[in-house]
Structure formats: C-alpha cells, structure tokens
Design goal:
Layout (H helix, E strand, L loop, with lengths): L20 E7 L5 H12 L4 E3 L8 E8 L6 H5 L3 E9 L1 E3 L8 E4 L7 H10 L2 E5 L8 E2 L2 E2 H6 L9 E14 L2 E8 L5 H12 L3 E11 L2 E2 L6 H10 L7 E2 L8 E4 L2 H8 L4 E2 L9 E4 L5 E7 L5 E7 L20
Parallel strand pairs: 3-12, 15-17
Antiparallel strand pairs: 1-3, 1-14, 2-3, 4-11, 4-12, 5-6, 7-10, 8-9, 10-11, 12-13, 16-19, 17-18, 18-19
Helix pairs in contact: 1-6
C-alpha cells in the first residue's frame, strides 16, 4: 500500500540527539523493570526511555525498553501475547505468590500423578477470571496495591478476564513443576501458580520465572545489559536498537507522497482513498521514516493522524514541516 516508492526505515524519527527505537533487553533477576530503565538511561545518555510491560524483580527475560518517541508506542507492545517459562514450587504458599514473599502455609506434596496435574493445568486454559496478587502494581484509590500490602492493609483484588492460550508441562520433579505458559497481556503468572497450587490441594508459588516472548519479540534476539554497555563503550550501540515501527507490525503500512506527508505532519485529515483491513495505518514519509499512525476519519477514504512522530523543533513550539527527502 503506497503513494510513493519509499521503502526504508530509519531509527531516527527526524533530527534529534536521541535515538527513537526499541531495545529487547534480557532482564536479569533481582532488578526491577524501572532499575533496568535507569541503567539504560545512564549508560546510553538517552533522555527519554521507558519499559513496555513490567517484569517482577524475581523474573528474567524479555523486557522491551522504548527510547525517545517509541515511548509513545508502549500500549501496542504491551498488548501482544506473552510466553513464560515458570518453575512452581508446590507445597509452600507465600503472601506474594513468589519466592520473595513470606511463607504463610506449608503442606506435604505427597504423590501427585501426572494425570492429576494435567487435569488441573487443562482447567486453567482458555478464558478465565483471574484475581491479581495483593502484591502488585495495580492501583486502588490511587495507591499501588503492593504499598498497601506492605503496610499491613488488607487488600482485596477484583478478578479480571485473561486468556490462557496454552499451558505446557515441561518437567515434574516433586515439588517443582516446570511449565511453559502462552497467555494474554495482563496475566499474572504468580496468580496462576498460586491457583494451580490451590487446585492441587497443596499450595504453591513461583520459584523461577522467565519471559520468553512478548508479541513478536523473543528472548533469542534479546541482549543483556552488559552487551549493551559494551556496545556503548565502542560507540556502536545504535546497531542494537530496533526500529520503532516494530511495535506496529499488526497494522498495514502506507507510504505517503510529499504533499500528503506534510499535511499529516501538521495533524490534518487526508484523503487516501484506500480500504485497510486493520483499524490503524502506519504512515511513512518519503525516505522511509515512520511519520504517523492514522485512524479512519468521517467520510469515505479519509484518514487522520492519531500519533505524529516528529521531533520538537529547536527554539519553536510549532510542528516542523515534513521533509520530502530522506533524513540523514
């Protein structure tokens, strides 16, 4: 779907000192997601960075760090399905539902058959109502639940719908149950582990957790913080940054003619005369730079920008003119 012949994609959304793109970081255990963001900011000098989808301090694996204007795309990254590898320790229940919490119950695991375990796991597949842990970042009356829980306030969470696409049994060596879980965004693996333990009648908590994939972003393509810092030291860390339109692959692309791109840059509705099969379009300026996300407007063939990706012009508060030549 194109108005022009542009087919390349720059990591730079216009002329700026910052990179605009996504880092696929393999988060280490023991760090919060915010800790990872701070470390990325410090080592790269990026002024603006944020993560797309929190991982608990215990957890490892795919943590997407958005840089520059890519921070405006976190909602699309967070919406993708997730794959986790989880080790559940049965027989011990904790208040946080993972190994960082205080033990609140112990039960002998006894002889659990693979058949019984398989039946319980199957009961959690599909659309379910899941109650998030009390120790979570969900807000209640404007306050994070984990802060209330740490203060001894009784926290009652509300069940919410999630979708568990598949639970695959990887290993069972009592009392440790290793699973691979494919699920929707918003699923708490800690709650799943707790509920599986309760259903088996012995309790349980997450002992180890790794996110193997978030949408199309997989752990095999991730980098460690040490690899990033080494690349920064030799001045080629930009090679590790993925284009920001990687967050938008689910939407069809349109390459705009210069005049149309300029109108979109100013936030104006344009006539494209196309029928798209996706609710939004990712629009590219001549030269291949991601320019905007477009949504249908009132009227046949009309599209309006819902997000425009342009740098703030130096010393000005307005919107800069869209360039009809590739950015350099």
């Amino acid at each position: 779907m194109t108005e022009s012949g542009a087919d390349s994609q720059s990591l730079f959304a216009g002329r700026s000192d910052d990179l605009h793109g996504i880092l696929n970081i393999n988060k280490p255990s023991g760090m919060t997601s915010h800790d990872v963001v701070l470390r990325v900011r410090r080592c790269t000098g990026q002024r603006k960075a944020g993560h797309a989808g929190t991982l608990d301090p215990l957890a490892t694996g795919v943590l997407l760090i958005c840089l520059g204007q890519a921070t405006r795309l976190t909602e699309y990254l967070m919406a993708g399905r997730k794959i986790y590898r989880a080790v559940i320790c049965l027989g011990i229940t904790t208040d946080t539902y993972d190994a960082t919490g205080s033990v609140i119950a112990r039960q002998p695991v006894g002889e659990l058959s693979l058949e019984r375990i398989g039946q319980v796991l199957a009961s959690f597949e599909g659309a379910i109502q899941q109650r998030p842990p009390a120790y979570s970042a969900i807000r209640q009356a404007g306050r994070r639940l984990y802060r209330l829980a740490r203060q001894g306030v009784a926290v009652q969470t509300t069940p919410r719908p999630v979708y568990i696409e598949a639970i695959r049994l990887i290993a069972w060596q009592s009392p440790r149950l290793t699973l691979e879980v494919t699920c929707s965004a918003g699923t708490y693996i800690r709650s799943l582990a707790h509920d599986i333990g309760q259903q088996l009648g012995v309790g349980g908590h997450v002992a180890e957790l790794s996110r193997l994939a978030s949408g199309d972003w997989r752990i095999e393509q991730s980098i460690t913080l040490e690899q990033l810092e080494a690349a920064v030291a030799v001045g080629d860390w930009h090679k590790l940054v993925q284009p920001m339109d990687g967050a938008l692959r689910q939407f069809e692309a349109v390459h705009l003619a210069p005049e149309t791109a300029e109108r979109v840059a100013y936030g104006q509705t344009v006539v494209l005369g196309i029928a798209a099969s996706t609710p939004l379009l990712r629009a590219y300026a001549p030269g291949g730079r991601l320019l905007a996300l477009l949504e249908p407007a009132d009227g046949p063939g009309l599209w309006r920008p819902t997000k425009v990706f342009l740098p703030a012009p130096a010393g000005a508060g307005g919107v800069p003119k869209a360039s009809s030549t590739p950015d350099t």
